[in-house]
Amino acid sequence: MEIILNTDIAGLGYKNDILEVKPGYGRNYLIPQGFAILATSSNKKVRAENLKQAAHKAEKIKTEAEDLAAAIGETVITITMKAGESGKIFGRVTNTQVSDMLAEKGFAVDRKKIALGDIKTVGDYTALLDLHKDMKHEVKVSVVAEAKAE
Q1: Residue 92 structural domain
Q2: Per-residue pLDDT tens over the stretch 111-130
Q3: Which of 12, 40, 63 is the C-terminal boundary of a domain?
Q4: Distance of CA 57 to CAs 31, 51, 109, 137, Å?
């Protein structure tokens, strides 16, 4: 029995794969659970069209990520934190702070897509932005001490 998978199934295949399975497995488990559909000629045509559109959509998303990386370029983010005499900061620099500073400069980057090391002192650091599965971009983060009021 030939089927088209609707979802990834461990040990069997990935979404949109056309597979040959035993008739009982396909008819009694995969199709009723919604994991697969029969691989008829019309379903194969629909699958081919969906793959074509998905490829076009993925290319557009990748192009947008490349444009965003080019726009960000060598931007330096400056974050002001309270710090002690030795330069050790109180609290920590978070992904949300970096995301907010990028937003102030006009770049929308989700905080979940920012990888930031553990920052404990004043200085210059690098944050890695995960803009696309094939596109990563580094941004300089400068942590400065807040001016003390006398």
Answers
A1: 70-145
A2: 888 888 888 889 999 999 88
A3: 63
A4: 28, 10, 19, 21
